[in-house]
Amino acid sequence: MIINKKGLVFTMRGIPFIILLILLALAGCNVNTNTFDEQTIIQAKETAESYLKNNFESIHTITFSEDYSNPMGGLMIRGIVNENEKANFSIDIDIDSSQNKFYVGSIEKGKEFPERKDECKEKSCDY
Fold first, then answer.
1. Which of 68, 65, 66, 52 is nearest to 104 (CA)?
2. What is the side-by-side strand order in the sheet with 101-109?
3. pLDDT tens digits for 22-76?
4. SS3 53
5. Can you give 4-52 as a three-state secondary structure string?
6. How, if at all, do strands 75-81 and 84-96 pair?
7. Do 105 and 94 touch, CB atoms closer than 8 A?
8. Cβ(34)–Cβ(28) below 8 Å
9. Which helix (H) or strand (E) covers residue 93, if one does?
10. Who wins on pLDDT, 10 or 15?
11. CB 96 within 8 A of CB 120
């Protein structure tokens, strides 16, 4: 049993419960509510399109989805290429607001996504 200066008594069983409440309160303060304006989304789509066309073989069409959410709080551009649902992608866009530049942070590709161009396998080509 622990007695603090104010005379409150805590049992050893109560301490984990208090820690859990504190953690839940802190997690609730960290909820992602990022929304992006239309201009930011347009620039992110242009960056994603340029990256895809400059780094991958045989991309003829790109169709973007309207879901821009990212569980980590950033901007995620999703879509398909060449009208093939199995050639889908999710691109995490990093934004350098001090220079107003957009960068591809990472890309996740579907099973039938086109191959990377030979000259872009070791290092991403400029986009």
1. 52
2. 62-64, 75-81, 84-96, 101-109
3. 777 666 554 444 588 899 999 999 999 999 999 999 999 999 999 888 877 789 9
4. helix
5. CCCCCEECCCHHHHHHHHHHHHHHHCCCCCCCCCHHHHHHHHHHHHHHH
6. antiparallel
7. yes
8. no
9. strand 84-96
10. 15
11. no
Using DSSP's 3-state secondary structure scheme, residue 103 falls into strand
Phi, psi of 6, rounded to the nearest 5 degrees:
-90, 5
Contact 124, 55 (CB under 8 A): yes
- pLDDT at residue 32, as a whole number: 46
3-state class (DSSP) for residue 83: coil
Cβ atoms of 3 and 12 closer than 8 Å: no
Residue 110 has pLDDT above 50, yes or no: yes
